[in-house]
Design goal:
Helix content of chain C: 55-70%
Helix content of chain D: over 70%
Number of strands of chain D: 2
Number of domains of chain C: 3
Structural class of chain D: mainly alpha
Strand content of chain D: under 5%
Strand content of chain C: under 5%
Order of helices and strands of chain C: HEEHHHHHHHHHHHHHHHHHHHHEHHEEHH
Order of helices and strands of chain D: HHHEEHHHHHHHHHHHHHHHHH
Oligomer: heterotetramer
Number of domains of chain D: 2
Distance between the termini of chain C: 70 Å
Low-confidence stretches of chain C: none
Number of helices of chain C: 25
Chains: A mainly alpha, B mainly alpha, C mainly alpha, D mainly alpha
Distance between the termini of chain D: 36 Å
């Protein structure tokens, strides 16, 4: 049972990585939100499976929080925002899907290259999970820098956070996981609320170099 | 003995100073086919000026009255340092080439100040040009002194003359170059053609004359005397440093041949001066720095040749 | 008061009063402030105390300005701290504090744009020197046993530097202290900052502060850096010194105001001192301690002389400014009648500035030339040629200084007043007169008795070089080699007096005396209108007019000086105008390109600053990836 | 009383949070400002007891000399900022730029930020520290966006997103550190604590430490404003209310750099024991140098006073990071001294600038000029504070910069060249602005002149900067030197 749960958790970690690539590939906003929710579910289930495997009840709690907040609540909020603010459904990309996929693959390779040799003492599955987690983090970053619209960037950030939590649960005996994941959630909530309150509709990179030029090199 | 030599030297210099000026004028006139004033004319001028009442511009300060004495003091001191017929004067240990140069600079500065004192336009023109000439003459002079000092083992003129006298009488390239440089400097410093025309009173071309325009009476006499004395000091300097033959070393025995040699040398140099002045024309003021630049180059060449041939003492 | 105590202290030290190294109860761990003065410190302290005393006395007669009351003593104290310092930290603390205090003084008149600009440039250069000197000091230092770098002079001395470190020390010291001293090419700030301060402060800045910078050069290069070093170590100093001398001398002739002309002349004299220092370095490297002592002695003597006469001249300029309301030469004139004491003192100072015998400037420059002459012995033909060129440049500088002195005195004090304020000037108040007269008297003493002064320097020379001037600095005669003829200031003065007084006697005896006063012939100018009782100021030479020959001959190539004359058409009543412009080429070649470079760099940095969030994230991620890749690579290796 | 003495650390952390909760509901605005001050004062007093309290304070807190020193510093700056806030916020309110709910929010967030910073400094647990830094970030973001102008919201967003990513990276590093420590200490809280890491440092797996260090460096480096992670900093400093800019500018680098210093010490111990880690100094020095160079070059072409000083903060963070990267007892000591003195001086600068901006009705260089002529006290204080930041004697930063540059020359001469160039450039920029702000003809006033009490805070800061640099009491110097010995 424990061995199977471990394998399952490992598999779900892999699924998160795949979903990250899907996020990178996806062009439509609603699909993006769905894929994000799926990733959160995968994370939650992986946490739960690990909790069962290691006999650590707090991991179950982490899993529950992940599913409830990021698998259900945040996607719902995002959909509301998209509808209320009438955000365009298609996503402007800054990098193009092809290059960003290539970049993503390269970063995944780098992550594995970086994590694998340095974690020789750790449990084998934890090593791979860590590599996966770093890959997810990296893909989240790629998504943040390859998309122009605010919502998709925030989704990238949240995917990145999923990777972090995956890393946290991959480390056996990591204390304070629940607290950390909740603390991070608070921040996510602020960000999502910020989009809503401040009506950041299309993009939040309005501080563009172009603006600077237009003001005529005004000294800031 | 050395005191006696000094007194005799002083008297000779004082007497010869106006004569040299007169001789130069006379010879120059002759070379140009004119009769010319008598040789004694400068002496007469000085005596006549002494009988006239001195004048002073109403805006001039007491400095104006002091300057002629400073002139005479500085140039007179220089004249007491440069040997004429003997090297054994009381002032021989003081006869430092740099100090002599410094004394001549004192005279130049003093006269320039006096020129500015009356607050007229001419004085300013003359003073500023004289100071420019001085600035450019200084490096050439210093390089000549450097060459002489390297050969003579120090900057004391008497010591240099003694060394040159005692050494093998060879013609050195560097000495020749240095002589040329020093001659150029001497022409400029004394306000002779081609740098300045001692006979001119044309306002735009004059340098020295513009500075003394406001002087009259005994002041002018002193300044004229100082001018003659300066010319003589330069001639003497050239004679002692480059043609030290015949100068008596010590004791009264060498005095008579020394005197004769000195008279000949001064005569020859004055003739040369007159010949040169009658042969070439005055330069424009701003060509003079170039003229002095050539002197500087000659001085530099003299030094370089010296270094190359001599290795070092 | 403080200065008076200081002067007594300095003299006592020079006479050999032992002074044990002392630690001040300040500082942080490993950086206690220590004082360890030696003969060199005392000598420079003497210069400082003379200048500070005179400036303080002079300041009594100035209207009290609260803005200068606090920084002024701090300025003096910081200079003293620099001179007395026994370790690198104290030295630098004093050095920088001196800059900051004097910066505040330069800013005393901060309403004027030019002053603020000067102050900014000044403090900027000060920061530059501070950083350079920190670098130099730590290159000399070695990490101590407990990780605390040993910065006391004793420790620095004990660990000589060699190779590239030595070269770096040389470069940094020349840049750091050289910029403070005003050596070309780092002199640009000096003619702006020195005149901007109140005159008694300018006097200290020119007279004493540049000496403190020279002290640092001497302290590091002759003392702390150990030796022997290669012979070429002296060459940069020689070159910078000669360039400073000529450029400073020239600018002293073209500067339109009295104080900046004096400041430029400071550059010139610092250059001459630097030539002496360079020679001494070369001689020391060639193992000729006697010659090194001659050169260093000449440099130190000139430092003292300059400290005295430049202070005097700045104080005179201050008195003129206070009394005639301007320091622009073109607004002065004829002051010798209204301010006889000031004028007499200024004449004394100018004689020293022009290096006229038997004044103080001549003695030290005579020694300097002797050192140069003897220095020909130190190397082959290349060195000799270099020295010959340096000698020529020095002579040019001396000639330029004489011209500058004539211009200063002639335009400001002689002739007719050029402005009503100048016509109504009154001589300085008593304390100011006392300060100036004291310095002028000191000038006379220094000029006539250079030998005894050199003997005071002897301990410092022995301390640094192992040899002193010894017998060469006789009471009456200075000589380049013991036992040969030399320069006898008193003798020359006596001869001059003899000839001059003889002429006076003869004139009194044989010539008609009693001057008749008459108007000067002005070359046909119209008589001045009645409201110009002192004549039309425009009909006598102006400051720019006086410098015209030199500006044309030398200024055009060295200062890119340009003159434009606009003559109105015939029959027009408009005046003709003559405008002379000049720019220090080093400003154009050094500071301006640097500023452009900085602005361009700032512009490109701004492109990086105002990125969108996405782009700045991209930069962040890019650098992170580089770090990770580097890490992976390094792990592999 | 004994109980209080036993656990001042807990109180130091709890009081601000409690005060924040109180201030969140307190109605009276004048009263709120005074409560804010009282709470900050109480925290400062409590913080002063920290050095005398036992090391392990419970609740995952631990007081060691470094934490105690920095907590006192943070509490002091918080206290003076609260003092300055009183007048400053009242003036803002009077000018109609802040309404009562926002003032209430401001006070609550002020205390939250202070509490979070103190928690981050005193936390022994890396997770707690991370949470505290995150909380501080959120609080700071909210304050920066308080004025709700377009520029302020933009700045807040930038701050939030970039620091959010930074904090995420720091968390990943923390996880890796826990993994590393767990392999030696076993799972549990010990593996996540500074004490555990320090104890186990020689035996930790070096390569893993390297990786963790990179992530923590990027994470907390963002908070410290190291280039190229600094983009959020100038905007947020420029847009926040000025008393808060003082706190943010002074405290954010402290927290982040102290964390980096602690981690660096762990790695160094590992290197010394042959544990396989790489010397961490290189990376710190590289980012430090980059910050110095970019921070100083950006001092030019600035029009906004607060943004200008934000770039100066970037430079200073770089200098400190460089010193910490250099390592060795003296360099770390100098870095700590620089950290303390710069925090004090920069806080004084911001306090003065804030009053000057209110006085002149704008915070651009064209608005503020010639302060000394019109308002000598304010002008001289600002001039002194800027001179202090520029490292001019007699202020203390001269001493620390002297030591840092000197150590660099001794150990890495070529990098010292760059550092020196950066320091010169920085000093030039600061001098330029010092003169334009304080000297020359004054610009016209259009706001209330600051009274004496408001200027007491920067004056006290300046006196401290002066004394701590030149006449550091032996006890205090020894104390800092001891800390430097622990973390070299």
């Amino acid at each position: 049972m424990a061995g199977f749960a471990l394998q399952l958790a490992h598999l779900l970690g892999g699924a998160m990585l795949v979903l990250s690539f899907v996020l990178l590939y996806q062009r439509r906003l609603s699909a993006l939100i769905t894929v994000y929710a799926l990733q959160a579910w995968a994370l939650g289930l992986a946490a739960a499976a690990l909790g069962v495997a290691q006999g650590a009840p707090h991991l179950l709690l982490v899993g529950f929080v992940a599913v409830a907040a990021k698998g259900v609540a945040i996607p719902l909020m995002l959909r509301v925002i998209v509808r209320r603010l009438a955000i365009r459904r298609a996503i402007e990309t800054a990098l193009g899907v092809g290059p960003s996929m290539i970049l993503g693959v390269a970063l995944v390779a780098l992550s594995i290259l970086v994590v694998m040799p340095v974690t020789l003492q750790a449990v084998p599955l934890a090593r791979e999970d860590l590599a996966t987690a770093l890959s997810v983090v990296m893909l989240g970053l790629v998504m943040m820098i390859s998309r122009r619209s605010a919502i998709s960037q925030v989704i990238g950030f949240m995917a990145l956070e999923n990777g972090l939590i995956l890393a946290a649960i991959a480390v056996p005996g990591m204390p304070l996981i629940v607290e950390l994941s909740v603390a991070f959630l608070v921040m996510l909530a602020f960000i999502v609320a910020g989009i809503f309150v401040f009506h950041i509709r299309a993009r939040f990179d309005s501080i563009d170099v172009g603006v600077l030029d237009r003001v005529g090199g005004v000294l800031r | 003995m050395s005191v006696l030599a000094l007194l005799l030297h002083a008297a000779l210099m004082l007497a010869a100073a106006p004569l040299v000026v007169g001789l130069a004028r006379r010879l120059k006139a002759r070379l140009m086919g004119r009769q010319g004033p008598p040789v004694l004319q400068p002496v007469r001028d000085i005596l006549r000026l002494c009988r006239k009442q001195p004048m002073m511009a109403e805006d001039a300060s007491p400095l104006f009255r002091i300057v002629p004495f400073v002139q005479i003091g500085a140039i007179g001191a220089a004249a007491l340092l440069v040997p004429s017929f003997t090297l054994g004067m009381l002032t021989a240990p003081l006869a430092d080439l740099l100090a002599i140069g410094g004394l001549l600079a004192v005279a130049r500065v003093a006269l320039a100040l006096a020129a500015l004192d009356a607050g007229t336009a001419f004085g300013g023109i003359g003073a500023s040009r004289a100071m420019m000439f001085g600035s450019f003459a200084e490096p050439a002079l210093l390089l000549v002194i450097l060459t002489l000092a390297v050969i003579g083992g120090g900057t004391n003129l008497v010591a240099i003359a003694a060394v040159l006298q005692g050494g093998p009488a060879v013609l050195r390239v560097s000495l020749g170059l240095a002589l040329l440089a020093l001659l150029a400097v001497a022409l400029v410093e004394n306000g002779r053609i081609p740098a300045d025309n001692p006979a001119t009173h044309l306002e735009l071309t004059m340098v020295h004359e513009a500075m003394v325009l406001d002087y009259a009476g005994r002041d002018l006499a002193l300044i004229e005397l100082a001018g003659g004395l300066k010319l003589l000091v330069w001639l003497d300097l050239i004679a002692t440093a480059f043609f030290p033959f015949g100068i008596g070393t010590a004791g009264a025995a060498g005095w008579v041949p020394g005197l004769a040699a000195w008279a000949v040398k001064v005569l020859v140099l004055t003739t040369g001066l007159a010949a040169m002045e009658s042969a070439i024309a005055k330069m424009r003021v701003f060509r003079v720095p170039e003229f002095l630049g050539i002197a500087l180059l000659l001085g530099l060449l003299a030094a370089v040749f010296l270094f190359l041939t001599q290795g070092f003492v | 008061m403080v200065s008076a105590v200081g002067i007594a202290w300095a003299l006592a030290g020079l006479l050999g009063m032992p002074f044990a190294p002392a630690a001040l109860p300040l500082g942080v761990p490993g950086l206690a402030l220590t004082l360890a003065p030696d003969a060199l410190s005392w000598f420079f302290l003497l210069i400082l105390c003379i200048a500070a005393t005179a400036a303080s006395v002079f300041a009594i007669s100035r209207p009290a300005a609260p803005r200068t009351l606090v920084p002024f003593p701090l300025f003096i104290a910081a200079m003293a701290l620099t001179l007395l310092a026994g370790d690198a930290f104290t030295l630098l603390l004093g050095f920088e504090a001196m800059s900051v205090a004097s910066w505040l003084l330069v800013l005393a008149e901060d309403r004027e744009d030019a002053n603020r600009e000067a102050a900014r440039q000044y403090l900027g250069f000060a920061a530059f020197s501070g950083i350079c000197l920190i670098g130099a000091m730590f290159l000399l230092a070695h990490a101590g046993p407990s990780g605390v770098p040993a910065l006391s002079f004793a420790a620095l001395r004990a660990a000589p530097v060699e190779g590239w470190r030595g070269v770096a020390v040389l470069v940094l010291v020349l840049l750091g202290a050289g910029s403070k001293a005003g050596l070309v090419p780092l002199h640009g700030w000096l003619p702006r900052a020195h005149p901007a301060a109140p005159s008694h402060v300018s006097a200290l800045m020119s007279g004493a502060m540049t000496k403190v910078a020279l002290y640092v050069i001497i302290r590091v290069l002759f003392d702390l850096a150990g030796g022997p070093h290669p012979r070429w170590w002296g060459v940069p100093l020689l070159a910078m010194g000669a360039a400073s001398a000529v450029l400073g001398g020239l600018r002293a002739n073209t500067a339109p105001d009295m104080k900046s002309a004096l400041a430029c002349s400071t550059i010139e004299h610092v250059g001459l001192i630097a030539v002496g220092l360079g020679l001494a370095l070369i001689a020391r490297a060639a193992d000729l301690p006697a010659l090194a002592a001659l050169a260093l002695g000449a440099a130190l003597l000139h430092a003292l002389n300059h400290g005295v006469f430049k202070t005097l001249l700045f104080l005179c300029a201050g008195a003129v400014q206070q009394s005639a309301g301007s320091r622009m030469l073109d607004r002065l004139g004829g002051l010798i009648r209204r301010m006889p004491v000031t004028a007499a003192c200024a004449l004394m100072g100018a004689a020293a500035l022009a290096a006229l015998p038997p004044g103080p400037g001549f003695a030290s420059e005579w020694l300097l030339f002797q050192a140069l002459l003897a220095g020909l012995r130190t190397g082959g033909v290349p060195v000799q040629m270099l020295l010959a060129v340096i000698a020529a440049l020095m002579a040019l500088a001396v000639g330029l200084a004489a011209a500058a002195a004539v211009r200063l005195i002639g335009i400001a004090f002689l002739g007719r007043p050029r402005s009503p304020r100048a016509a109504a000037a009154e001589d300085a108040p008593l304390p100011a007169r006392a300060a100036m007269a004291g310095l002028a008297g000191l000038c006379l003493v220094l000029g006539l008795l250079p030998g005894p002064v050199l003997q005071m320097i002897d301990p410092a020379l022995r301390h640094l070089l192992g040899a002193g001037m010894g017998e060469r600095a006789g009471w009456l005669v200075l000589s380049a080699q013991a036992g040969t003829a030399g320069y006898a200031a008193l003798g020359i003065a006596l001869l001059m007096a003899l000839a001059g007084l003889g002429a006076l006697w003869a004139a009194r005896r044989f010539a008609v005396s009693g001057h008749r006063v008459a108007p000067a012939w002005g070359g046909g100018f119209m008589a001045p209108p009645p409201w110009l009782p002192f004549g039309d100021p425009a009909t006598q030479p102006s400051a720019a007019g006086f410098s015209q020959p030199l500006r044309r001959a030398l200024g055009a190539p060295l200062l890119s000086a340009r003159e434009t004359v606009s003559v109105p058409p015939p029959a027009s009543p408009d005046p003709a105008r003559h405008v002379a412009r000049e720019a220090d080429l080093l400003d154009a070649w050094l500071l301006a390109p640097l500023a452009r470079l900085r602005d361009r760099a700032a512009g490109s940095a701004d492109r990086l600053q105002f990125l969108t969030i996405r782009r700045s994230l991209a930069v962040m991620v890019g650098v992170l990836v580089v770090f990770l890749a580097l890490l992976a690579l390094l792990e592999e290796l | 009383m004994t109980g209080l003495l036993a656990a001042p650390a807990v109180l130091v952390v709890l009081v601000p949070f409690a005060a924040a909760a109180t201030l969140g509901v307190l109605p009276g605005m004048r009263l709120a400002a005074w409560v804010n001050l009282a709470a900050s004062g109480l925290v400062f007093l409590l913080a002063c007891l920290l050095p005398f309290s036992p090391g392990d304070a419970g609740l995952l807190l631990r007081v060691d000399p470094l934490a105690a020193t920095m907590a006192i510093l943070a509490a002091f700056i918080g206290f003076t900022a609260a003092w300055v806030s009183i007048g400053c916020i009242a003036a803002e309110q009077a000018a109609g730029r802040l309404d009562p709910p926002r003032v209430r929010l401001y006070h609550a967030l002020f205390q939250t930020y202070l509490g979070a910073v103190l928690l981050a400094l005193l936390a022994d647990n890396l997770g707690v520290m991370w949470v505290a830094i995150e909380a501080a970030t959120v609080a700071a973001v909210l304050v920066v966006g308080l004025s709700r102008t377009h520029a302020a919201i933009e700045a807040a967003w930038k701050f939030f997103i970039l620091c959010g990513v930074g904090i995420a990276l720091a968390l990943f590093g923390t996880i890796l550190l826990t993994l590393a420590a767990g392999s030696v200490l076993g799972p549990g809280f010990a593996a996540m604590s500074w004490t555990g890491l320090a104890r186990a440092a020689p035996h930790l797996p070096g390569p893993l430490l390297n990786l963790a260090f990179v992530f923590v460096l990027f994470g907390y480096g963002t908070k410290a404003g190291l280039v190229p992670l600094h983009v959020w900093l100038p905007d947020s400093h420029a847009e926040g209310p000025t008393p808060f800019s003082a706190v943010l500018g002074a405290l954010a680098p402290i927290v982040a750099l102290v964390a980096l210093l602690r981690l660096r010490a762990v790695l160094s111990a590992n290197v010394a024991a042959g544990g396989g880690a790489m010397a961490p100094g290189g990376a710190l020095m590289a980012l430090g140098l980059l910050s110095v160079l970019l921070g100083t070059i950006s001092l030019w072409r600035r029009g906004d006073v607060k943004r200008f000083f934000a770039f100066s903060s970037i430079e200073q963070s770089g200098v400190i990071a460089f010193a910490f990267g250099l390592g060795g007892r003296m360099a770390v000591f100098a870095g700590l001294l620089q950290l303390i003195l710069h925090a004090l001086a920069k806080a004084a600068v911001f306090q003065c600038v804030g009053r000057a901006a209110q006085l002149k009705g704008g915070q651009r260089f064209t608005d503020i000029g010639g302060l000394i002529a019109g308002h000598p006290a304010l002008g001289w204080l600002l001039a002194g504070a800027i001179a202090a930041v520029a490292g001019l004697p007699p202020f203390g930063l001269f001493v620390s910069e002297f030591l840092i540059l000197g150590e660099a020359v001794l150990r890495v001469p070529w990098l010292a060249l760059l550092l020196g160039a950066g320091l010169i450039l920085g000093a030039l920029g600061l001098i330029l602005r010092l003169q334009s702000l304080c000297f020359g003809p004054p610009t016209k006033d259009c706001g209330p002149a600051p009274g004496g009490p408001a200027l007491a805070a920067p004056a006290v800061h300046l006196v401290l900067v002066l004394l701590l640099g030149l006449a550091l009491p032996m006890a205090l110097g020894g104390w800092l030197y001891g800390i430097a010995g622990t973390f070299r």
